[in-house]
Amino acid sequence: MSATPMPTQFGQAPGTVTLSGGWTLAVSAASDKPDDSFEFIKQALSVDNVVQYSAATGNLPVRGDAAADPRLNEANPLNQFWVGLLANTHYRPALPEYPKVSEEIQKSVLDVVAGRSPAEVSDQWSQQVSRIVGPANTRAG
Hints:
- The protein contains 7 helices and 3 strands; from the N terminus they run ββαααααβαα.
- It has helices at residues 34-44, 47-57, 64-67, 70-75, 79-85, 98-113, 118-133, and strands at 6-7, 16-20, 89-91.
- It folds into 2 domains: 6-91, no CATH class; 98-137.
């Protein structure tokens, strides 16, 4: 088994698509110590710390130079594959249904890996997504 990118809906350029989440560290405008806060952020997001955090958590690095660090591949040989998908990423929608649909995708993958028929899993996934987002927001095909 291996990883493969998600194709675009109709095979249009660039050919693959992925969704990413995100996080940030920020200094509040009301901070009593903005300089100290900024120094903390600089230290937390140093190349070494980003590499260590990404390797330990399985998250993708937020810095290109950290993404190129060989320690990420040592932590997970697929990391460079996932990093390579970032060029075609879109920010995941902030919709309450999104995490539910995402969870159904994960369940479906696990079901197929466990030996269930892909056709059966696909039918079940379609029913679950229709239940989550409503039939008016889905279509066949």
